[in-house]
Amino acid sequence: MDFHLTNEQLMLRKMYREFAENEVKPLAEELDEEERFPMETVEKMGKLGMMGIYFPKEYGGAGGDVLSYAMAVEELSKVCGTTGVVLSAHTSLCCAPIFEHGTEEQKKKYLPDLCSGRKIGAFGLTEPNAGTDASGQQTTAVLEGDHYVLNGSKCFITNGNVASTFVVFAMTDKSKGNHGISAFIVEKDFPGFSTGKHEKKMGIRGSSTCDLIFEDCIVPKENLLGKEGKGFKIAMQTLDGGRIGIAAQALGLGEGAVNEAVKYTQERVQFGKRLSQFQNTQFQLADMHTRMQAAQYLVYAAACKKQLHEDYSMDASMAKLFAAEAASDVTRRAVQLFGGYGYTREYPVERMMRDAKITEIYEGTSEVQRMVISSRLGVK
Ligand code: CAA
């Protein structure tokens, strides 16, 4: 895999990095403290073309590629895990399935508003009784004339309270198991749709996470996404792409913690020496950087394979598994290097450690990634 970045990718990465440093980093502590969604950042990202990086210009996208998108999530997450997941869930879990499975009318109707950031997207798969076992959907969709009627609820939905457009999964035929699941595009103003409980979380506290409620929710027939019964496949394919986004978020969080630790250990003096002069510190930092560099190769490889339309399912799972576990380990080690100060909110490493934990859980736990990888190896 050739990671020789093109001039355009180098230019975009520079722009994302400067945007993250100048516009995102200054808000990160406040978003976390106040559990505040960064709406102003979404507007700015929309103007810069960051809300639809790898979608064609004819649908309002920036016409870029998947690697540039991964680098955007990485750069944002170096300074703010919340902003990283806002972009990732919007792009991978809502814009991508509409682009990849939508009709021409659906793409023209929904993508321009999403790619410009005028509207935010979300994805409703998880239910109270269908988490890792995603095929156990209990939300139902019944066709009545020119519309479907949806009943049920979803939980832990990223961007749930701020999104206008949702890709939602429901059972159209219970007797067919996962082949009875269908996907729908739901607008927040459809009758019978509402959002519920807002979750108070350990990390990524500025991101919105809430329940979605469907009470005789009317969804026009033309909002079926893909064919009836193909919803589970659409969900799995969407999550393959989503896992690249979350892997990039984990990558950024770990790299951000390394940057903070390199800076701090050269400032802090104990026993008359800078912490960076102790061999323990040097070895810790070397290991931390090496883990994140290895994660970067896996994330970039998965992104490049998706761009080339190669089968990248296992690559996305390996990238997410490795990057998430590396980020949790590296952010925890960063807190340790900071000592007591690392445990306080005066420094960002404790926030990074809290933010990193969720990357081992959402869009498929690390155990799910191991299931995907081992099944691809033919292990039964
Ligand atoms: N692409 C296309 N099709 C796929 C696929 C993929 N990546 N993975 C599986 N499929 C297909 C299979 O080919 C199979 O098709 P057939 O029935 O036609 O043979 C079908 O799907 C069922 O496959 P499995 O038997 O492997 O499915 P399973 O029920 O055993 O589940 C699983 C496997 C890996 C555990 C899967 O259910 C899974 O990924 N679970 C985790 C779900 C998840 O990530 N949830 C997070 C939701 S989003 C979120 O976190 C919140 C947010 O807003 C960020």
TrEMBL record:
PROSITE patterns membership: ACYL_COA_DH_1, ACYL_COA_DH_2
Record-level Gene Ontology MF annotations: acyl-CoA dehydrogenase activity; flavin adenine dinucleotide binding
InterPro entries per record: Acyl-CoA_DH_CS, Acyl-CoA_Oxase/DH_mid-dom, Acyl-CoA_Oxase/DH_mid-dom_sf, AcylCo_DH-like_C, AcylCo_DH/oxidase_C, AcylCoA_DH/ox_N, AcylCoA_DH/ox_N_sf, AcylCoA_DH/oxidase_NM_dom_sf
Start and end residues of each Acyl-CoA dehydrogenase/oxidase C-terminal domain: 229-377
Domain Acyl-CoA oxidase/dehydrogenase middle: 122-217
Gene3D superfamilies found in the cross-reference section: Acyl-CoA dehydrogenase/oxidase, N-terminal domain (1.10.540.10), Butyryl-CoA Dehydrogenase, subunit A, domain 2 (2.40.110.10), Butyryl-CoA Dehydrogenase, subunit A, domain 3 (1.20.140.10)
Cofactor dependence: FAD
Family membership noted in the UniProt record: Belongs to the acyl-CoA dehydrogenase family.
Name of this chain's protein: Butyryl-CoA dehydrogenase
Organism: Pusillibacter faecalis
